[in-house]
What does this fold into?
Amino acid sequence: MRKNSADVIQVAQHNTLARAHFGLDNLQARIFTLLLQGIERRDSELKDTYIKMSDLVNYSIGGTTYKQLDAACKTLSQKVINTEPDKKIGADYYPIFEYVKIKSGSHGFILGKFSKHVKPYLLDLKENFSLGEVTKLMELESGYTHRMFWFLRSYIHLGKVNISVEELKDTILGEKAERKGKASYERYYDLKTKIIDAGIQELERVELLKVEVDDSDRYRNAVKSVTFFITKPSEAAVTPASTNNSMRAVKIDLFNQPTVKEANANKEANTNYTGVALNAWNQMLKYGLDQKQARYFLSKLEPEVITKTIHKEYILKKDKVNNAAAHIYDELRKQIERKAV
It folds into this structure.
């Protein structure tokens, strides 16, 4: 963890790790970021990093959510880095983590430690490393965008990078063996629309990077490589983080943080809400309910019920939901009906 002159909390990793071939889902990426935050700039040895469950979700951990966290930790502990750059020679696979542990209960926590094999990529970094602002990384909604950010950020000093489509997939999504059985986006159209374009929108929304793409390098109408043009956002857009060093300074709810744009747009309307109620308000507006509906549900339900319902009935099922606002509205209405019985 580092702080710049504006007191913004940043995390760092060597460009070798930033460009490595491994994928992360959204929850894994956020845990990864908090584990990076546990590394102090002057550390000479790797150490345990402790993350409270309450730093990951802002309500009590239920069975489904705990299973998600457990699966994320298990998969994260199995991530590897290949330090052999020439695939024709072979591969040198090393684990990224020595361990990632999860403990349940009212005071549940995650405990992680990076492996000795990635120590050169995390400690005593003097050159060829990249920085990311924690609060903005935590606003990203896709683990793929996290990986895209670190890869692109590692080339910010050059202003651009050209990469083959296959290597881009390996870097952002993980190598083929890791992608097996998942959405691998083998068609370039799907990769472009669902990963590249969506990722660029996210990076620009949270003001981490400005990115333009040139995919004109084609053979028989198939895209061979992609060139990214990368610039930093305006320094004026940087918002100082809290000077409190605790991890609570970087989270409200990792699953459902409002965007900067949404927060600004709703600033006047939500001045009567604080804490969990404000979080519930932001979530409802984020997923398409209007202000009148949000006020109604906050007048009828406890804020914790709203956030938990959105997480359980939408976040965990959103791949099967066509209209987020309508689905959340119906589920909250059912909560009111159950309350009235």
About this structure: The chain has two domains: 7-235, 256-340. Residues 7-235 form a domain with the Arc Repressor Mutant, subunit A fold (CATH 1.10.10.10).
